[in-house]
Amino acid sequence: MGYAAQTKVAPECPATQLPIAFHEATTTDELAEQIGGLHDIYTLTVVVLMAAVWLVIAPTVLGNAFMAPFEKPANDTFVTVQDEFQLSATFPNPAEWTGSMVFVGNLLFGQFLATVTDYYGRRRIISWSMLVYGIIGVAASFSPSFPFLLMMRLFSGICFTPIFVTNYVHAMECLPFSAHPMASLIFAATWVSGYCLASPIAIIFPHWRLFQLVSSLPCAILGIILILFLPESLGFAISGNRPAEFRRYLSNVSRFSKRHLRYNFSKLVDTEGTGSQEVDLKTLVRETTKKEILQRVVLCSYLWTATCFAYNGLSFESTVLKVGNNHVQFLLSGIAEIPSYFVSPLLFDRIGRRLTVIGICVFFAVTCQGMCILAYFAMDDTWMFLIFWLLAKFGASAGFMCLFIYGSEMFPMSCRSFALGICCSLSNIGAIAAPHAPAFGLLFPGGTYAAFGLLLLLAAVVTSHLPETKDMHK
After folding, report:
1. Three-state secondary structure call for residue 469
2. Buried b (16+ CB within 10 A) or exposed e, 348-363
């Protein structure tokens, strides 16, 4: 393969026009650094496209706080799933499965698509999953019965891992290691924007069917855009030994960049690749079941499960707090996430990944203890309680974002999507339980927050056994 064997300069970028020189790149990280990371217009566009996926799916997931709340406020005129299908508020509340079924579908089938992305590539699976997710969401808005709605939510969950985890992996594989924390801010900003959009959508369209329809249509539209324009990730093109995809990505980069790229594709594949055009399932399993990698998968799976339970539990609870208006509370819970997305990358660079995650878990556990005490003494209708609640939401969102950065750095590229897919799939156990989290309060006042705090305190212990990845790619 003559193309692969030579040192190359990006097409249409003569070296005489370029003052910046690089050593020949022999790793994906070195080549991504040469390209410029987020300073390269094309790479930035790819990252923004992947982040936009989080923007449009956020209302479809967190909108359950309005569509099927644990307890509907007395003065709320929104027509919920309970209202239309006349579901009784028994224990467990059947309407809560409106939120849970997405994660049930992801738990049962999400890992299959995560495996496929390591076999056939990121681009196709992400794009088509996004389109199918939107179409199923639209179909759910016309559900003739509650069981049909649950079935549609189950089917949409099958597509969830590619559009929530693999799309993040795709973006990180187009960037140098040094740009990962900043890229996480882009994802965080789009997620929080989509989170906060759920409230105005609920106000403008105060019926669960309209909410479901309006929030799902953008997903289908974005899916079409991704099918037409999304490239394969730079990292996968190298690790999968796909020179055509690799050349196409660099050709698009060269349209905007004036950088001098020096690389040897054969050496890149030897360093990062699997040595074949396709990674078979046996290879993925063999890579993932290596003792060191398997231990990380097990520990990360618990970390993901506990964090997803706490984060989603607090999010779904935001519309039923006893302090203030439910829409104001929901927006505040989204706004509380914003500072965490700046704090996490800063701490990541200062004290490292592992200590940051441990610190965030302990902080969350302490705030939950404060809420538990206030709720036990019937002070959960005070502003002091709301402050503790928002601090807990800050901690949960910081931990949630850390999962993606830390996880994407912890596993080798050859099985990264597969390993993260396992973690994400098992985390659905926590996400499934999240809509039912208020039931812990039936044991004793503040029981829900005691459960959140205990699980995250154990997560801090689990994280202490994971490796530090801060300097792993330097």
Report:
1. coil
2. beeeebbbbbbbbbbb
Encode pLDDT of 413-434 as tens digits.
667 777 887 887 888 899 888 8
425: Cβ–Cβ under 8 A, 6 or more apart, which residues? 106, 107, 110, 111, 114, 161
Q: How far is CA 449 from the centre of its chain?
A: 24
The answer to whether the beta carbons of residues 455 and 309 sit under 8 Å apart is yes
Interhelix angle 281-288/291-317, rounded to 10 degrees, is 90
Q: CB-side exposure of 331: number of CA atoms within 13 Å?
A: 11
The token pair that represents 175 in the structure block: 């960037």
As a whole number of angstroms, the longest Cα–Cα distance in the chain is 75
CA proximity to 418, closest of 117, 104, 50, 108 = 117
Residue of 153, 280, 155 lying closest to 208 (CA atoms)? 153
pLDDT digits (tens, 9 = 90+) for 188-212: 889 989 999 999 999 999 999 999 9
